[in-house]
Amino acid sequence: MSTPDVSVVVVSWQVRAFVQRCLAALPAALAGVSYEVILVDNASQDGTVAMVRERFPDVVVLENEVNVLYTRAANQGMARARARYVLLLNPDVVAHPGSLAYLVQYAEAHPEAGLLGPRILNAEGEDDWRTGRAFPTPWSEFMDWSGAGRWFSFLPFLLKNRRLHYDRRSTSAVPLLSGACLLFSFQLPLNLRKLNPEFVLYGEDIDLCRRVANAGWRRVLVAESVITHTGAASSQQRPALAALMAIIAMNRYFRLWEGKKAAWLHRALLGLVGLFKTGLFCAGGPLRPAWHKKCALYRLVLCWASGCLARFQVS
User: Do 117 and 205 reside in the same domain of the chain?
Assistant: First the structure.
């Protein structure tokens, strides 16, 4: 059996329709490039595994008996990969024709690039600012979670993390790439060709980019490679828990890379957000039923920030 050019690793949980659409787009997206696909399924109960085995018989399926969350499952898939390049791909991504093939070809021509990602469009066809942005700070997280990022988008100096003036239609080295689609160069050291298990869900891409940067490798946004990312296909099934886990992951990132003071500041700022929004959404819940879920989320955030949610404490 010949070695493929790229191993595509997809992690799924309860997203059958998204997986089907994602896998169906791969032949055109990887035209001219040999590849294998490895699907790691986290105990889905929606028929994902049966559908893949029936419709995509060449896909290697690793079926977990329980949901081991994203990072562990992704590392499972990457450990099974046979190709020189490994591509981590979210199941809620549709890669445009030729996009992933171009990403691999660019990597071949630019060995200094250790980690590569495509230009990412959302469902409305707009550029996703999360890829190509700067590393987060406690302030940038406060601006995002408070909603102030939307209110003050006309004041870019308040949103430096988003790099609003950066042209994502131009290929260049960037601080951060989105974990929705990441191509690992075979030239990266082995310790950089896997995700940090401390980040069980969320934040793993930010930590990875930080490690790759510290090792002296470039992270490149390849604008000629374009994908569409719907986003939140799995997390929207348990939105409050998913959002809280994202906040906790960022607090872990700040503690690991910026120190205890940054982690404390992040917790304090998110506590203020939780306090304000708990009052807003919980008080308005009886008048606006849609606010009930937001009330539950920000009560969790406030509880975590104040230390009463012991099992979510970050050591």
Answer: yes
Q: Are residues 70 and 213 in the same domain?
A: yes
Do 225 and 239 fall into the same domain? no
Our count of domains for the chain comes to 2
Decide: 155 and 122 in contact? Cβ < 8 Å. no
**pLDDT level of residue 283 (50, 70, 90 thresholds):** confident
Give me 95's structure tokens.
């890669």
**Alpha-helical regions (H) of 162-238:** 204-214
Is residue 1 a part of any domain in this protein? no
Four-point Cα dihedral 20, 231, 238, 264, nearest 10: 140
Same domain, 278 and 194: no
Crossing angle, helix 260-284 and helix 138-146, to 10 degrees? 10
Is residue 51 very low, low, confident or very high in pLDDT (cuts 50, 70, 90)?
very high
pLDDT digits (tens, 9 = 90+) for 219-257: 999 999 999 998 655 556 667 788 889 999 999 999 999
Judged against a pLDDT cut of 90, whether residue 264 lies above it is answered with yes
153 found inside a domain: no
Consecutive H or E run containing 299 = helix 291-306
Q: Compute CA 223 distance to the chain's CA centroid, rounded to the nearest angstrom.
A: 18
The CA–CA distances, whole Å, from 15 to 7, 32, 46, 100 equal 21, 28, 8, 22
Could you tell me if 60 and 80 are in contact, meaning their C-beta atoms sit under 8 angstroms apart?
Answer: yes
Residue 265's domain comprises 235-312
- Give the contacts of 76 (CB within 8 A, at least 6 positions apart): 40, 62, 64, 68
Beta strand extents in 211-275 (DSSP E only): 218-229
Given 205, 229, 253, the domain boundary residue is 229
Same structural domain, 200 and 252: no
Does the pLDDT of residue 160 top 50, yes or no?
Answer: yes
